[in-house]
Here is the input.
Amino acid sequence: MAKKVSIEPALRVKDLPPYLFATIDKMKEKALAKGVDLIDMSIGDPDIPTPRHIVERMRKAVQNPAHHQYPSYMGMLSFRQAAADWMKKRFNVKLDPKTEILSLIGSKEGIGHMPLAFINPGDYVLATSPGYPVYPVATLFAGGHCHEIPLLQKNDYLPDLKKIPKTVLKKAKLMFINYPNNPTAACAGKKFYKELIKFAGDNNILICHDAAYSEMYFDGEKPMSFLELPGAKDVGIEFHSLSKTYSMTGWRIGFAVGNKDAIAGLGKIKTNIDSGIFQAIQEAGIEALNTDDKILKKLRDTYQERRDVLYDGLTKLGLEVTKPKATFYLWVKCPKGYTSGELTAHLLNKAGVLTTPGNGFGEPGEGYIRFALTVPVKRMKEAVKRISDVL
Ligand SMILES: *Cc1c(COP(=O)(O)O)cnc(C)c1O
Here is the structure.
């Protein structure tokens, strides 16, 4: 009889912390098995379906045999052109669709592959923390070290670039930043981006700006692209996602824009690993990028109403919350006597409300929990009522 193979995961996998949302999924399953009427505000996944005109374009595109073959590696030029037009219209940023734009299978894919393109074993990557868990993990996969820069409430959740040790700066090649920020919901403006561009140039560090939430803003205050500033294209790229803006998380489409050498480097990794985005999805992506502002405003108004309900409700309970100007998250300080993990467990077990513990996004997130605005107002009010009974 043939021998059984002993299956040993690679060290880089063994050393991984469990993916945050996989752990939360388990907690959720347990609660559901017990029959809890769960209000899930843990994951940043829109509950609102993809707008109809996008689905309709997909329905037609899928019937076109030209789309049934391998797509082009960089993405259809028509999609990249639509992304260029969108960047021009929204931010007044001019880009060459042939060299300065790359289609991605969701921005997570591009972010995850970035260190593979630029990091050698021993190199450092800077990433803000708390933050999207992909930044440190992708760094680890490439053999690099991740130096986490804390985002603190007293600094409005902007990184203090002057505090990064010189020894780290010398070995750092890439830096991930993300505004509007997940999980803190903080925004950055011109002053910070100017400082960042100078910092990048002075220290020879390639900036990777994750702009997944640039369109999820409130009160009409539009976040900017860091590429709007002079010199930005010399130091970095920006990742854009169709996922949250157009309720398209399941479709897997996004794009990277900016410095052409960075775009080419990332493209080179991709040509060797994946074969691009299904072209019918790229056609639907073109449709999405041309969405009527009225439809987007309606989506934003929905989230804004939810934000107001949850913000008012939690504030009335005496919880400390900064009112977010963008994203669909509320970053809430734990009341005295609770760690992030304890408060998350308490709200789940006693109130049937699932949130995300702040420390799951990195150590500086300890002492906070994150609510995602992904349930209707009625359920949100119910959640506030239940929380008021147990806090
Ligand atoms: C959701 C999210 C993304 C990933 O978006 P996809 O385009 O769906 O891969 C990237 N960055 C942050 C901070 C996010 O929250």
